[in-house]
Amino acid sequence: MKNKFEKEVREKKFRVTIFGSARMKKGDKEYKDVYNLAKMVGMRGIDVVSGGGPGIMEAASAGHKAGSKKTKARTIGLNIKLPHEQRSNPYLDIEVKFKRFSKRLDNFMALSNAIVVAHGGIGTMLELFFSWQLMQVKQICNTPIILLGEQWKGLIKWLEKEPLRRRFFEKKDLDLLFFAKNYKEAIEIIEEAYGEYKKGTKDFCLNYDKYKL
């Protein structure tokens, strides 16, 4: 499986990474939203990447599996070995397990062309801020970071009120984040990014002011 994953990393293709809480349940609205989003991603023949575990990660893998039956797109899981073992979800085509969060994060970035951040806690926020930092310093490029769901409204307002007002970063840095209130808005942003990717645009800027708060 490791050799299969290494081959996958080297392969140049558009992929969508979905981050979110392991604690979400199937009945939760956020679980259903991610399931529907991942299903739409799979129907378009785009691979999806997640943490490979339960909750939102399972929703991403299960939804993608349902949507990719005809397109044969793959669902990839980058799992993490924890003291209390995080179980893998049963919908993965490719899975690799990491001992360290840092190496796992680097591999997420190597695979990501669009990032969706669903509701979550400390781990999800780590993934969000790591992605945003790399975009700010241009270690990764042309990768929209999509904040999915109401949880992120308060965070964006705080970022504007405190660190942005104090000039700890610039407005252009905040513009790297997109807000999508539902999976239909998220797929629109992904489709535009995918279109630019297929055209081979080296340095594109998505014009999605309607998704700003």
Strand content: 15-25%
Order of helices and strands: HEHEHEEHEHEHHEH
Radius of gyration: 16 Å
* Low-confidence region ranges: 206-213
Gap between N and C termini, in Å?
42 Å
Number of strands: 7
Question: Can you characterise this structure?
Answer:
This protein is α/β, with parallel strands linked by helices and 213 residues long. The protein is built from 8 helices and 7 strands. A 7-stranded parallel beta sheet has the order 4-3-2-1-5-6-7, with helices on both faces. Residues 206-213 have low confidence and may be disordered.
Short description, anyone?
By secondary structure, the chain is an alpha/beta fold. 46% of the residues lie in helices and 15% in strands. Strand 5, helix 5 (122-136) and strand 6 form a beta-alpha-beta unit.
Features of the shown structure:
8 helices, seven-stranded parallel beta sheet, globular, 213 residues, 7 strands
What is the topology?
Elements: H1 2-10, E1 15-19, H2 29-43, E2 47-50, H3 56-67, E3 75-80, E4 94-98, H4 101-111, E5 114-117, H5 122-136, E6 145-148, H6 151-164, H7 171-174, E7 177-180, H8 183-199
Parallel strand pairs: 1-2, 1-5, 2-3, 3-4, 5-6, 6-7
Helix pairs in contact: 2-3, 2-8
